[in-house]
Amino acid sequence: MSIQFQPTALVGAIALALGTTSSVHATEQKVAKASLDTIVVTATRSGEKIENVPARISIIEPAILEQSPLKALPDLLKTDPSINVVQSGGYGQQTSIFLRGTNSNQVLVLRDGVRLNTATTGAASIPFLDTTDLKQIEVLKGPASVLYGTDAIGGVVQFVTKTPEKTGAFVTGEIGENQTYKSIIGADLAENGVYAQIRGQVIETDGTPVFNINDNRNYSYDQKGYSAKFGIEKERYATSLDYSQNSGNVQYSNWGAFSSQDFQNEIVNLKGRINPTQATEINARLSQFKDDLDQVTSSSFVHSTTQEAEIYGKWNFTAAQNVLLGITQRNTDAKTQDLDEDINSTGYYIQHQYQTNSLSTQVGVRIEDNEKFGSHTVAQGGIRYQLLPNTSIYTNIGSAFKAPTLNDMYAFGGNDQLKPEESISYEMGIDQKLPLNILAGASVFYTEVDNLINSICVSTCNGDWVNTFPIYQNQNIDQAKMTGGELTAQWVKDQFFINAGYTYVKTEDTKQNSELLRRPRQSFTVSTGLQNADYGLSAALVAKSKAKDFSRDIPGYARVDLNAYWNINPTVKLFTNIENVGDVKYKTVHSAGDQYYVNGGRLASAGVTFKY
């Protein structure tokens, strides 16, 4: 790396940021808190108050996203207890997310509507996605195939980007342990409904070891990228064009051998909206997502491209009712040394909503025509009822599906005779306003997945994972079950806040009569602190129980993160973070024998932002 890191300077910066307060006048910064007035778009394809959604949806808020440019996307997702993030090492290493016990490729990941799940693994390349211009992350829990098609069995994680609201520019730099730094430069223009935005960012780290034993080297990661956005937002029409590209290199362990790969992802997203009348709205989108991996130490590569064209209209035919009707055409293309295949699919969907002051309903159906796996019909219905002035209850039921990925069929352990996975989910919940400004929620859920694609041992199943290794193949399981519940609580009083969440989920492979891999039964998160326009100090705890892996359990763990910021004036902001304060080296994936993959340990950092 080209930058020299001085630990004493970092300690001094942290002490300064943690120990200093200010009476400087309030800036234009607003400290955002998730509330019943929070607007979400994922559940209905248009802006909706979260209190009206007949499903459980959570928000990773702007205040969390703005704490640290260095905070990697996997660490951001850990703040939601319904998501289990499994990473084979630290920064940039392979990452899977399990939402409510469903698999990583059963969770659809979007960025402003653009599908980021690849054609090969079926999951998104979470470690390589940049967070620079995100406004919030929405986590819709439960099936969502009616609106989004394949992959949305467990739910949808959508990255909602910022739209410029005023003209300005900024420069941010943050430096941390392990020779880690990130710098961002950006400029915004907004005037009379016309806006433009440009961002550039670079990040580098020497990294950390990925194994708990027999691993004396660090695995580095670097990434750079840029993005641009231009749009027009008027009452009767709107259009926007987004472009972003990120590229870099990550070192990793390939079955114990040192390896390195270059990556590049690119997003193009063209959207338009017209309102022919006050009661009608027509939206259109053309998008492309490219995700390329090229091995440095060999000639192998994996290139994935997803192209989508979509048009949908919304008609508010009464003051309380609307209908949404749409069609999506998708082409997914994958290329490797041994494979060149593309698959086309077309989805047709319709959704009806009814909404009054006390009742919200949502019913929809989708027909998806996949040229390789045939047609699938899914449906979903939900209702939320304001039982009392401070009590809201909801329930929903929905089906979903996921087509086999190209990795499922042709990669290591592949099986080209696999069938698509199909699911049915049930959920009910309650949200309650309590005295002392407390908002609490509870929900229970149950999901059955037929033809679940799972890796099954077919030979040498008693191997010791040192001298003899079991042989696995992907097969459809007759049925898998996920049963669980969630509890949430939020308290806000002036500048003070506490947010807590607990998730319990029990998974079952009915064929093997065992739990599914890497799904801890219990997850708990809590964050607390104070935040205002001048300064803030907060702490967050993430805790997981043990989880089953191929031959050994993965132990549970707990970690604590700290954040502080100080707006010296409207132009200068200082901030500091300590991720994993206790430097806990918790195990994430079992490798072989006594060897596990471990997280990256502590990352203490400090930074500054200049706004103009």
From TrEMBL:
Residue stretches making up the TonB-dependent receptor-like beta-barrel domain: 213-581
Protein topology in the membrane: Multi-pass membrane protein
Domain TonB-dependent receptor plug: 50-156
Keyword Ion transport among UniProt keywords: yes
Swiss-Prot/TrEMBL keywords: Cell outer membrane, Ion transport, Membrane, Receptor, Signal, TonB box, Transmembrane, Transmembrane beta strand, Transport
Domain of life per record: Bacteria
Subcellular location: Cell outer membrane
Locus of motif TonB box: 38-44
Annotated PROSITE patterns: TONB_DEPENDENT_REC_1 (PS00430), TONB_DEPENDENT_REC_3 (PS52016)
Pfam family, one: Plug
Signal peptide: 1-26
InterPro entries: Beta-barrel_TonB, Beta-barrel_TonB_sf, Plug_dom, Plug_dom_sf, TonB-dep_rcpt-like, TonB_box_CS
Family to which this protein belongs: Belongs to the TonB-dependent receptor family.
Protein name, per record: TonB-dependent receptor
